[in-house]
Design goal:
Blueprint: E1 6-11, E2 16-21, E3 26-32, E4 43-45, E5 49-54, E6 59-63, E7 75-80, E8 85-90, E9 96-101, E10 113-118, E11 127-131, E12 138-142, E13 149-154, E14 159-164, H1 165-169, E15 182-185, E16 194-196, E17 203-207, E18 210-217, E19 220-223, E20 238-239, E21 243-245, E22 250-257, E23 269-276, E24 282-289, E25 291-297, E26 301-307, E27 312-318, E28 325-332, E29 354-356, E30 362-367, E31 372-377, E32 382-388, E33 398-402
Antiparallel strand pairs: 1-2, 1-33, 2-3, 4-5, 5-6, 6-7, 8-9, 9-10, 10-11, 12-13, 13-14, 14-15, 16-17, 17-18, 18-19, 20-22, 21-22, 22-23, 23-24, 25-26, 26-27, 27-28, 29-30, 30-31, 31-32
Length: about 425
């Protein structure tokens, strides 16, 4: 029987990871007592594998979601890494990885270790920890295939620092400080969001003034023009997230505008922003008010979940042929602990995770606090499945959706 789509559902609060065959709802594997880092997300690797960081155990987990179907374990590798994990990325080969550390459940930055991993290193564990700079750095791996640069994106002050992966792997024990081979000051101190296009080598960093672009040039970083948030006759706001649609050669974000106060979140406006990497054509589409943050890339659509006191919805934007357009707005069942007017949209409230595969039309959206994941077919806008788990999925949980042959690893940054 041919393999079908697999949905990984992780409850990072309760400590549960479950793999579900979406064809029949069957659970094919489960891990108890595992707490994947929600902010670092899942990283797609070649061979239909996925990586995440267990924030309680301090381990990078390489998962083989189709392994249990053939008698292989779900956990292919366990590698010690520093936590709390902030961001996770790989080089295009999927062999070399990097994990940055951030705030975790703390109010201010306190952790500065960076962990680099070589999945093919001789001996165990194939990981080295060094110290860089306290903050919440994003990370990408770009440059020569055999020895990429590990590029960290920092805030306050905004800068990019780059390190040779091979040099970091040779660092001494006891978490020594690492000196970058190059440092590039950014004009903004509010960077948030990273992407890497392996085809052109460009590294992208989202900030208030636009999307900064750099490309490795030896041990240096060559700057390109900054991509503006203004596009398609719409301006204002900024994006806090970047995602690569490798199949359609398009960079995506959600641009937020409106009052600065977090308590005014129902009045925020949100636009889907895209930039075609080869033609330079860009545009924006109105998604509606409220909280829109992360997005997911399906075969012919990009999916956004929108949270608002008047009702939540899944917004589907077409990507195949012609200019992107909103094709469906699908109402989502309410969450009992949803953000309220007058409060913030992320402190002590429920959230939604969203996932899709670039190899299929299915989109999964969690219902935080209810232990439910609703699966829709983007081609029709209709619900295709309902997945339930025995834990609440507080804070929305964490999702990954894998389709056979989807080549999701062409986006080498964890989501």
């Amino acid at each position: 029987m041919p393999l079908g789509p697999r949905l990984i559902v992780a409850d990072h609060v309760a400590g549960l990871v479950r793999v579900v065959d979406l064809r029949d709802g069957r659970t094919t594997a489960q891990l108890d007592g595992r707490h994947p880092a929600e902010h670092a997300g899942f990283l797609a690797l070649p061979g239909h594998r996925a990586a995440c960081v267990d924030d309680r155990a301090g381990e990078l987990l390489v998962l083989d979601p189709y392994g249990p179907d053939s008698g292989r374990p779900l956990v292919e590798r366990r590698i010690p890494v520093a936590v709390p994990a902030e961001h996770l990325a790989a080089d295009p080969s999927g062999r070399r990885l990097a994990v940055t550390t951030g705030l975790g459940r703390n109010w201010s930055a306190w952790s500065d270790p960076l962990t680099v991993v070589d999945l093919e290193a001789k001996g165990d564990p194939g990981a080295v920890r060094v110290r860089t700079r306290t903050g919440e750095p994003g990370v990408t791996l770009a440059g020569p295939p055999g020895d990429p640069l590990v590029v960290l994106r920092h805030r306050e002050p905004g800068e990019l620092t780059a390190y040779r992966h091979s040099a970091l792997m040779e660092a001494a024990p006891s978490c020594p400080p690492a000196e970058p081979v190059t440092t590039l000051r950014l004009a903004d101190d509010d960077g948030h969001g990273d992407a890497h296009d392996p085809v052109t080598g460009w590294v992208f960093a989202a900030a208030g003034s636009g999307v900064h672009r750099v490309r490795p040039d030896g041990d240096a970083l060559a700057c390109g023009t900054t991509l503006p948030w203004a596009a398609g006759g719409r301006d204002g706001g900024r994006g806090y997230y970047l995602r690569l649609d490798a199949a359609h050669r398009t960079l995506w974000s959600c641009v937020r505008s409106g009052p600065e106060a977090a308590e005014s979140w129902p009045d925020w406006s949100n636009d889907a922003w895209w930039h075609h990497l080869d033609t330079g054509v860009a545009g924006r589409l109105d998604l509606g008010p409220g909280l829109v943050f992360r997005l997911a890339v399906a075969a012919g659509h990009v999916a956004f979940s929108r949270v608002h006191p008047d009702g939540d919805e899944l917004v589907l934007v077409s990507t195949g042929g012609g200019a992107p357009a909103v094709t469906a707005r699908v109402p989502l069942p309410p969450m009992a602990g949803a953000p309220r007017r007058g409060g913030t949209p992320w402190d002590g409230v429920q959230r939604r995770a969203v996932a899709a595969s670039p190899g299929g039309s299915l989109v999964a959206v969690s219902r935080g606090g209810h232990g439910e994941v609703h699966v829709f077919d983007a081609l029709t806008g209709h619900q295709a499945a309902l997945v339930t788990v025995p834990t609440p999925l507080d804070e929305g949980g964490l999702l990954a959706l894998i389709e056979p042959g989807d080549e999701a690893h062409r986006d080498p940054v964890g989501r």
